[in-house]
Amino acid sequence: MQARTVRLTMAQALTRFLSRQMTVIDGEKLPIFGGVWAIFGHGNVAGIGEALYQQRDDLPTFRAHNEQAMTHAAIGYAKAHFRRRFMAATSSIGPGAVNMVTAAALAHVNRLPVLLLPGDVFANRVPDPVLQQAEDFSDGTLSVNDCFRPVSRYFDRITRPEQIIPALARAMQVLTDPAECGPVTLSLCQDVQAEAYDYPERFFEERVWQVRRPRPDRAELAAAIEALKGAKKPLVIAGGGVLYSGASGELTRFVEAAGIPVCETQGGKSSLPDNHPLNMAAVGVTGTAAANRLAEEADVVLAVGTRLQDFTTGSWALFQNAAKTILGLNVQPFDAGKHRALPLVADAIEGLAELTAGLQGWKAPAGWTENAAKGKQEWQAAAAKVTAPTNAAYPSDAQVIGAVQRAMGSGVTVLHAAGGLPGELHKLWQAGAPGSYHAEYGFSTMGYEIAGALGAKMAKPEQDVVVMLGDGSYLMLNSEIATSVMLGLKLTIVLLDNRGYGCINRLQMATGGANFNNLLKDTRHETLPDIDFAAHAASLGAISQKVSSIADLESALAKAKTNNRTTVIVIDTDPLISTEAGGHWWDVAVPEVSAREEVNAARKGYEEKRKLQSIGD
Questions:
Q1: pLDDT single digits (tens) 68-120
Q2: What CATH code is carried by the domain that includes residue 227?
Q3: What gap in Å lies between CA 321 and CA 554, rounded to an integer?
Q4: Which of 521, 463, 480, 473 is nearest to 494 (CA)?
Q5: What is the pLDDT of residues 19-34, one digit of tens each?
Q6: Are 242 and 265 in contact (CB under 8 A)?
Q7: Strand pairing report for 207-209 and 279-282
Q8: What is the reported pTM?
Q9: Are both 303 and 428 inside the same structural domain?
Q10: Residues with Cβ within 8 Å of residue 327, at least 6 apart in sequence
Q11: How crowded is residue 521: how many other Cβ atoms within 10 Å of its Cβ?
Q12: Torsion over CA of 224, 229, 233 and 234, rounded to 10 degrees?
């Protein structure tokens, strides 16, 4: 019997397929795609634009103001949903498409699902070169969309309408796979979007995608249990995989049963609530003194759901116990085996549950756990000191964080991405529920903050989403303030104006460099800009206010809770102050020779620190 078919354009088939993909969260069946972000132009307005219109009730389309920003919003949505739901983004050809590449790289680094649907040139090549087409003199198959290849987990160019069938099947496998998860790019030739084909009706049948939870290999599990049972100073590092797996509860049971202290990466922060007695909070370059002291001494480090990037490991100079063993509990084998770790390839929930059962009756030495508790108390006192209110004309980032914490509490979702704030927030923010700390620090993308927060708010409309960012990030990408107002999605944005790139200026000074080209006063200028950020935010439709003190900031934040739309609060801060307590060395190469004595001195210190690094041991 011949299969039944339906005649559709390729774009119509694509959008119908997306609308039929489902997932189940807490027993409720939901569309796995929360919608499609679209900025139309030639290359997608006639094809996929028409198809999205036909499917608008089942697959909502959202219009943004910048292609990079709309993709950030899609990524923020997926991250806030712990990768259980995600979005697509479509652009025109040429600059519209290339604008999405930075966001694709962000998703690739952070292992986050997003479906990118950039328009492409004509497959038939008859009108070549078309408007916005970049021609390669030696390769007729290339277009600017090939820029997506290195930052996509899966890339495909659709040059015939029937190719969308296997391409979408592969796309969904990647988007939903816990190990392979990341951005998928389907480059859509604009003529092919409009071409019709007789698609099998079965292609559009509803499908429910479940989370795959691989269990650990028996031999790997036995080795991990043996290593932990021999540990005198065990430590858990909780990464983003704990949250994506939904393993916070299993992590709690594991560490409470075994008495093992926990520290958290940027991606893993909020895996345990900050007030849990075993949570030593942030680890690494931006870590707390409590966590880093334990990491230096630990003899067994159980790294759960983390890719162990340099900020977590102090550029591999943090773990100083020569006899240490690293256990890599990760769903991705590439991450599980890093730095000669004993791999435990498994879903975080399944792996932790198996470890809990295998360690039944065993506990870490009481002295180690008590030592951790003492260190936490000391850190809390130090953190309270640096976040305390001040009357200074230019408060520190830490003091602003303290004000936001006091005014908003731990029940909000705080979101940030780049500059000095990630380091301060990682150390100092007291996270509550899992996912309430939303950091994009894998790619550390300036401009993610407001757009990513918009996506997070779409995912969690019932929650207050608080964005913290600097003037540099705000100036790079602020357009989605207007989109948040347009969509009725209220954000609370705290803008710290230190008049330049304060974080990089401090790094420049620390490596012996002169104050140069970072703070506005140190750049080439005729007149220093005096930017009225509050007026700018108001022009985009937000409620806005500039405050002159920490006390006024807390009052403004209290008022923002009752505002009916996005609110931007601006405060001037000191660009030179950062929290000295906690932290760890970070490998930033210092010039081997220089005319500046400050650089030569910094190089000597740099060479001493490099002696602490371990490679492959």
A1: 999 999 999 999 999 999 999 999 999 999 999 999 999 999 999 999 999 99
A2: 3.40.50.1220
A3: 44
A4: 473
A5: 999 999 999 999 999 9
A6: no
A7: unpaired
A8: 0.97
A9: no
A10: 224, 227, 228, 300, 301, 302, 303, 341, 342, 344
A11: 11
A12: 40
